[in-house]
Amino acid sequence: METETEMLNTYFSNGAEVEISSDEDGFRGAWYEGIVVRPIQKKQRTNKDDDDDESSNKLRVLVEYKTLMADKKGKRPLKEAMTLVQLRPRPPPERRRKFKVSDEVDAYYNDGWWEGVVMEVSSDGKYSVFFRGTRDQLEFEESRIRIHREWAKGEWTPPFGDEGEERKKEEKLVSTETKPNDEAAEIFSKGSLVEVSSDEEGFEGAWFVATIVKLLDNGNYLIEYQTLRNNDDTAFLQEETDRLHIRPRPPDIGSFESFKVLEEVDALHNDGWWVGVISRVLKGQRYKVYFKASNEELEFKHADIRLHLDWINGKWVRASQALKL
After folding, report:
1. Average pLDDT for 304-322
2. How far apart are the C-alpha atoms of 139 and 122, rounded to whole Å?
3. How far is CA 307 from CA 167, 276, 278, 310, in A?
4. What phi, psi does 89 have (nearest 5°)?
5. Looking at the predicted structure, is the pLDDT value of residue 169 above 60?
6. Closest CA to 194 of 231, 232, 222
7. Measured at the alpha carbon of residue 268, what is the angle toward residues 212 and 233, in degrees to the nearest 5?
8. Which end of the chain is more exposed for a tag (fewer CB within 10 A), N or C?
9. pTM of full prediction above 0.70
10. CA 282, CA 287: separation in Å to the nearest integer?
11. pLDDT at res. 46
């Protein structure tokens, strides 16, 4: 398991090109290009590190943005102190490719790369991308889109390589005998146990267990939460949700003896599963988990953490593996 110092020396040395995530309102969900200026000693504080909590003792690095400026004239690049969980190496260049509906992508917008989903492909080759965080849907040229990848434990997911081979592997993981609509109808039928996400402020990054009550005429679902109550606390909350905010319950892939630093996980908190990153391994099978969406670090016991999985194109994906239903 790599320590913070090893991660710093391997990936974030002085002058290294990186991508930077921010927790400030209006910037969450985006990655901005930058370079590492220098590490900041753990006991050294900057004007952003005046909090007297444990986060001030984390290893931080000073980064300089390539596209965000500190002054209105746009002449002085913005510099900030970041923890390692807010950084990743700059992805290597990749071949241009065609995208299809439901592809998870990053779109270059407002000086950064924002995670979204391809919703439509126009006849002139442009792509309409939906952004969950803002619920906006914008159109992009192919040159402004790239495949969405996650970086954890020194590896990119999905891995870089021949794009044609990647597409073939993806296609093999989805049954060719079942039409997508038929498959969705089978997975998300009345009574099915699912997980539902929300874009409401304070709930970003969480999945809540629910049951499908019925399929609505507009193609959405009426669901009933298993842990959230209505305002009168007389019954479990029922709500309408669309296909972008619903997924099956993650499969049981067995228990893990321990989790590692920088491993992406879901933590059970406030009645839902919140995606985060292991920031510290404690004694007694306890962990510190960092949540990028809220910029919080909380402590959890082993039993309240599970490996993070993404539901992409009808399959569960983790690291370089894909779990077929």
Report:
1. 72
2. 9
3. 25, 10, 10, 10
4. -60, 155
5. no
6. 222
7. 55
8. N
9. no
10. 5
11. 46
